[in-house]
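Example record used in the benchmark description.
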Amino acid sequence: MDDADFLAARFEESRPHLRLAAYRMLGSLPEADDAVQNSWLRLSGVNASELENLTGWLTTVVARECLKTLRARRRRREEPIGDALAATAAGADDTEAEALLADAVGPALMVVLGTLAPAERLAFVLHDIFALPFDEIAPIVERSPAATRQLASARRWRVRGVPPARDADLARQRQVADAFLAALRQGDLGALIAVLDPDIVLHDARAAPGAEPVRRGSRPVASYALRYSRQARFVRPALVDGTPGLAIVLLGRVIGALGFTFRDEALIEIEMIDIPDRLRRDVVVSH
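Model output (structure tokens):
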């Protein structure tokens, strides 16, 4: 068996897993099949000997394809048609399709997943259903691992019926975010350090996935933040990915944001965001 045949055989072994993952993310068998096929096209141009985990690599490629499809669908304001049953009725009698329907087609689950934003849906499906680690999901959804963890957990209640964060928890997070902003405006290093976890990390969303944090530790992060104290008059409270954070607003337009990850009553991670698509999609300025 030559390399091409070996690669094709390995791909076919992974196909049921990839198809199920794509269907969970897209809710559409034709679109799932397209995503899987595109992963094969990508694989054919890669040196497979360099891939330590072929199934994991393919899952990542399929997830990226699904994310593109979900975002395109959202721009067109389209919803997937419940085509799985139709496909089966039309003669998809293979055991894979049967297992797909038995395991993956929970109408209530698919309806709830359909209410999630693309990145939320991927984070939940890949981690909670397929056990992919957050540090592997993070580059796919363009978040840090900690932000990806928060993205998935914040939406889990909608899928599993787990209650969301209590109003009191959100109120405490808002207080921490407000204290950060007040200290920034006042140029108060001590007050900034007081709301930061000693192990806090500061990421810049413009950095390449997996790049080192811009700063690590409460004092370096606070000192770095104070560089922007003069611009703090343009900063407003906001929800970033549904969590209290801050937005930078200039002439009525959001030009940047700070996404916060909380642990107890301190900030454990700050993500600097200025990617236009994310600002439009994930940031809501408080009024």
